[in-house]
Structure formats: structure tokens, C-alpha cells
Amino acid sequence: MLRRISEDYIVNVLKNHDQLILNCQVELVNIFKSKDEIGMIESASMTRKEPDGSAPTNALVDLQNVLEQYTKLNEEWEKSILANVRSVVETQETVYRIMACFNNLEQEQKYVLEQLYIKRPFKEGMQILIKELDRSRASILRFRKDAICAIKTMYDSERSNLELYGLYGLALNEGNNRYR
Asked: I want to staple 116 with a disulfide (CB 3.0 to 4.6 A). Which of 11, 72, 125, 168 is the partner?
């Protein structure tokens, strides 16, 4: 998860959570497809450091050197892949965590954020909320800010996503509550 989230990031996730998750999944697939075995073998076979410390040449080398160089390139590639995967997974976990916090809001807070960001454009949602809730624009904006602060507070808490959903206790007591 990202360590710090801003109000703008929360709003972006609320507006685009499905697309953000889809982008993460596509990016993960593309990361693992990006390995170029032939290019790595060619690169390993063409680079060579001279034993006397002179500049590398493009002369072909023996199989042992090619294997050592290929192994080194492969390890570097794996480290790079792991760093990229970690970054994408952290982004995905952040989106899931924000949505877990959103789903844990009080019903009215959730309704206001849905109208403003998820179901409708902001201006249209604001007009609907002013009519339905019979509140002023300033009051709705304050309520929106309180809802986003509640999301941020839950996000920063030590509670797991399962605890936020209230499922943690159910999972522990699952054996006692089985249906026959």
C-alpha cells in the first residue's frame, strides 16, 4: 500500500477504481510478457571483458562465458521485474484498501460520495444532493470532506481490510457457525 494518500488520490480512486484495477492487471501481464530470451542470449554472447582490463569487444566468446553472462542478465531482469511487480501490486492494494474504507462508511456518507464521484459527474450529483437532502452546497461539501477524512482515517488505521468489513470475527468463528 502507498504510505500516504491525499484527498485527490481518494477522489481519483472513487471515480476510476474499476479502470485502475484493470490497468494494474494488464500491466502485470505485460511485465511478465516482456522477457526477451533471444535478446538476452545475444547480448550475453556478444559482450566480453578482456582479461587485461582493456575495452570490451564484440567477438564471440566460449559457451561458459555466455552462460555466466546470461545468468547475470537473467538475475538483473528478475530483480527489475520484482520491483515493477511490487509497485503495481502496492497500487492495486491501495485501491482495494480505499474501496474497503469507502464501503465501510455510514450509509449517508457513502451515498453522498457515490452521487458526487461514482454514479454522476460532480455538478450533476451536487444538484441531486441539494434537492434530495435539502441541504446547502456548503453543507454537502462539508459532509463530503468529513466522509473523505473518514476514509483517510480508516486507511491509516492498523485494521486489516477484513476487519474493516467486519469479517475478521466471522472468519475466526466460522467453525462454530456452520449450517447443517
From this structure: 125
- The alpha carbon of residue 67 and the mean position of all alpha carbons in its chain are separated, in whole angstroms, by 36
Taking the C-alpha atoms of residue 168 and residue 170, their distance in angstroms, rounded to an integer, is: 5
Grid coordinates representing 135? 441541504
> What is the separation, in whole angstroms, between the first and last Cα of the chain?
39
DSSP E strands in 56-174: the ranges are none
What's the predicted TM-score (pTM) here?
A: 0.73
Q: Give per-residue pLDDT as tens, 33-56.
A: 876 666 777 776 775 555 565 555
DSSP 8-state assignment for residue 116:
I
- Alpha carbon 137 to its chain's center: 33
CB-CB contact of 164 with 104 (8 Å)? yes
Q: Is the distance from CB of 21 to CB of 92 less than 8 angstroms?
A: yes
Beta-carbon neighbour count of residue 45 at 10 Å?
19
